[in-house]
Structures are given as structure tokens and as C-alpha cells.
Amino acid sequence: MGDCKRFSSAKQAAYYAGLVPRVDISGDTVRYGRIINRGCHSIRRVIVQAAWSLVRCQHGGKVKEFYQRLYLKKGAKKIDHRYFT
User: Fold this and answer.
1) What is the distance between the alpha carbons of residues 17 and 46, in angstroms, rounded to a whole number?
2) In three state form, how does the secondary structure of the chain look?
């Protein structure tokens, strides 16, 4: 990843890692899909594993609480994007 200062925002770093949702826009309709399949796969893999470690940890804190709320609503697929940004 190099120097983190090259990213002016967390959003740019998320794009670099490929942790942003796919967006389909048609007229007035905007649909958000799965995370994009671009970006640095090794960084994404490390971030996802770190997020799962926090979820499974006894002292997961806010990440674990967020996961539990999100899992009840939408399932497990969105925890890594929220953790990174």
C-alpha cells in the first residue's frame, strides 16, 4: 500500500483496496451491489480477516456490535466495507 498519506480520504483508500460497492445507475434508479472485483486483493484479504477477528473476539467492541445489528438485517456480507471506511 505504501505511504497512506497519498490518499486524501478514507474513500480513496477504500477504492484502492476494492472495498466499495458496485453502483448501477439507470435514470432515477441507483442500485448498490457487491463490492467491486478491482483493487488490491491482498489488502482486501487482510482487512476482511481483521474484521472477522474482531467479530469473533470476546472484546470486539463497536465492530462486533455493528456486525450483530447488520447480520440481523442484511447478513454477514457488509461488515468488511464498514470496518475499512
Assistant:
1) 10
2) CCCHHHCCCHHHHHHHHCCCEEEEEECCEEEEEEECCCCCHHHHHHHHHHHHHHHHCCCCHHHHHHHHHHHHHCCHHHHHHHHHC
Burial 33-55 (b: 16+ CB within 10 A, else e): eebeeebeeebbeebbeebbebb
In a domain, 2, yes or no: no
Q: Which residue has the cell 478514507?
A: 10
> Taking the model in full, what pTM does it have?
0.56
Query: How many domains in the chain?
Result: 1
pLDDT per residue over 5-43, tens digit each?
A: 888 888 888 888 888 888 889 999 998 888 777 877 888
Q: Which domain holds residue 47?
A: 8-84
